[in-house]
Amino acid sequence: MNSTHYDACPECDLLLRYARPKIGEKAHCPRCGFLLSRPHNQSIKRTFALSIAGLIMFFPANLLPMVGLKVLGNVNSGILMSGVIALFNEGMVAVAVVVFLASILFPLVHIGLSLLISGHLYFNRPNRYLISWMRWRHHLDEWVMLEVYLLSIIVACVKLMSLAPLSFGLGLYAFVALIIITTMLTAGVDNALFWQRIDQLNKGNNH
């Protein structure tokens, strides 16, 4: 029995027969013209490289001092986790948990999954967990909110500048670099190509 797969256009909700264009081709919605898919040959390599860069930048962004406050000759500096601890100490446990998940844990898992998936595809290594990893990565796309945390840091710095001199540590620069990398990682993944390569690996592994 033959089965036909359909997808809804994200722009106009038109139900379309599922099609996978080849690398270099484009698939548009026939009603609204929305770009449905455009496979890129370098998407897997780029994702693999960005994942490695993101994993490298994650540790200095979380372990090195970000902002230092100089009061009476003493400099007090804090790392990314300091904000979570401060919220927890103030009794805002729920907010502290959300900040920890969205700013530390989820970005790390997102980068790790991107590295695992793109690494297996790049080296043509089938894995039974690839489908699950891809689904989890898709769900985490909406929960990686490093830019929100950066905005809160900027607001805090603006308020503190009127009280005491501030010094910016290497952790802040690493954190900004991490935001750029994760943004490129989220926007640059060609989901259609990734799913296509996963299916090819799984079929090849079953034969």
TrEMBL record:
The chain crosses the membrane at residues 48-72, 92-123, 144-164, 170-193. Keywords: Membrane, Transmembrane, Transmembrane helix. InterPro entries: PqiA-like. This is Paraquat-inducible protein A. It comes from Methylomonas lenta.
